[in-house]
Amino acid sequence: xxxxxxxxxxxxxxxxxxxLGPNGAGKTTLISMxxxxxxxxxxxFTIDGLDYQxxxxxxxxxxxxxxxxxxxxxxxxxxxxxxxFGSMYGLKGSDLKDKVIETLDLLGLLKFxxxxxxxxSGGMKRRVNLIAGILHNPKVLFLDEPTVGxxxxxxxxxxxxxxxxxxxxxxIIYTSHHLAEAEDFCSHxxxxxxxxxxxxxxxxxxxxxxxxxxxxxxxxISLTGKALRDDx
Amino acid sequence: xxYKIWMSVVKEFLLLKRDLGGxxxxxxxxxxxVIAVTLIQDSTFKAVTDSKxxxxxxDNDKGSVSKTVFENLEKSKYFxxxxxxxxxxxxxxxxxxxxxxxxxQLAIVIPENLSSDLQTKVEQNVEKxxxxxxxxxxxxxxxxxxxxxxxxxxxxxxxxxxxxxxxAVMSSIDKMISQIETKSIYSTFxxxxxxxxxxxxxxxxxxxxxxxxxxxxxxVRPNSxxxxxxxxxxxxxxxxxxxxxxxxxxxxxxxxxxxLRTNPVSNLxxxxxxxxxxxxxxxxxxxxxxxxxxxxxxxxxxxxLNIEGHFLLTSVVALFSGFAAIGFGILLGTIASTQEQSxxxxxxxxxxxxxxxxxxxxxxxxxxxxxxxxKSSPMNWGLEAFYDVxxxxxxxxxxxxxxxxxxxxxxxxxxxxxxxxxxxxxx
Lengths: 232, 427
Hints:
The complex is a heterodimer of chains A (about 230) and B (about 425).
Chain A: E1 16-20, H1 27-34, H2 52-62, E2 63-66, H3 78-88, H4 93-106, H5 122-134, E3 140-144, H6 152-167, E4 171-176, H7 179-185, E5 188-193, E6 196-201, H8 203-209, H9 216-224
Parallel strand pairs in A: 1-4, 1-5, 2-3, 3-4
Antiparallel strand pairs in A: 5-6
Helix pairs in contact in A: 3-4, 3-5, 5-6
Chain B: H1 2-17, H2 20-49, E1 53-59, H3 64-75, E2 79-82, E3 84-85, E4 88-89, H4 92-100, E5 106-110, H5 114-132, E6 154-157, H6 163-192, E7 214-215, E8 218-219, H7 224-238, H8 241-254, H9 256-262, H10 267-296, H11 311-335, H12 339-357, H13 368-374, H14 378-390, H15 396-424
Parallel strand pairs in B: 1-2, 1-5
Antiparallel strand pairs in B: 3-4, 5-6, 7-8
């Protein structure tokens, strides 16, 4: 029994690629593999022509990762967290400080820059979590459920910012349960279930190719069924 | 890489600065510990030496021996003799009851006729020797000798009394009785020889004297502070294992560790950052405790720590002890999955390492097998290195083997942690 089986994907530069699927479909496992957190038992993949086996360090310099959990130090301020994580990407000095201020400002957090993260709301933490993954202007950005559990305003701010990043050349690969959000946000989508890819195309093409489908949710139900996927 | 290490150190200090509980564990608790333990040990020492212990004396003899025992005990700086309770003479039963209930720590029961029987026994022995030497009056007729049974002075100890105290008391009473016997033998010889004018020298011919080590022509007299401060400083330094392992476990549970794994930064940089931070903390702990022992102790009635001429070497020992503690903390934090695993395990293992390392009971006083085990405790290497510097006045070269062991322990534990982590997250 494998978490992923016979998965074949080709994500082109500049795409916003959504990995959608029910709970336990293998989305997080796939994204963890692509981020270098989980080792695959077989198979092969490259990012910008590089593989982890030979170019782990180079890949880590060109990717950005925004994990599902708030991967931040709660007792540090937003600025301190970002200065630290930015420095781990090799940024330093005024470049780093300016970048932190700029992104905090873009995501509406500058006035809270010197507040401890533990005092932030879920939406604010999500935004800081996002900034920590993009300070070094990654070529490829992986996001695992970046808008889960946040208010509408924060969600909009995050999505808008991601669109700007994409327009500036960042390829985005993200997982989500919000199908309407994905339909609007993604240029391409793959629907994953039981470790396999059931379909991949543009959202519009997927809707059009599915009988009686009016939106991505109909496509999703049509491909994955209505059965609950509770598992422990 | 240097900048990444620097930022890691800054981050660790910021995290510590905002963790009040952690700061208390790191800086306040060790001070409380070293002050409390030194005060207790010093007052225990004073209780035995300065204030006199009340002991019960049951005198069934009423002779010269019991009188001498009474006088010697009274003269002693350790004891006050009690011969009556509620204005009634003490019987063996009363003494036993009082001691076993813990009201008194010791009772001495002198048997009936001890003085007269001792005198008779000595006279019989001396007479035999004198007769064998042909020095007796040949006309005198030998009387049949009365058989004298051996006499027993009974000692009752409070069951709560420690073995070391018991042994010390028994040894001093044994010495006192021997002196009485010797004196009696000398007197009887004098009498038998009819040379009562000859005065035998009854003072001990062989005496002993403790030679106190001298440093820079000054006597260095070990005291409770010289022993306790290094021991409990080391104990406190090793307690860094708890906050450090919790820090690592927290990084794993918060997700920051996962984020770092996706960053172009090796785990070695993260570990170097933690090592530098916690080494600085170890040194601050050490200097705080030294400062307390040098400046505060005299004002609370304790002797001052004599660190003159040893400051640099003790700092080196503290630093290397800190490395060993940090290595252990990193390993524990890497292997443990939760704080519930790391904190109790860390605390218990430090206490075990301290116990087998000789922090509480000196290694020489341990059973043979434990003495070998003690040599495997990094706390023992650190403690012996401190004693080498502070009490044995050794040079840097002589502490190299011990500090090398401490550093080797750090390298091994950190390497295991790095290897374990690499295996776990191999991609």
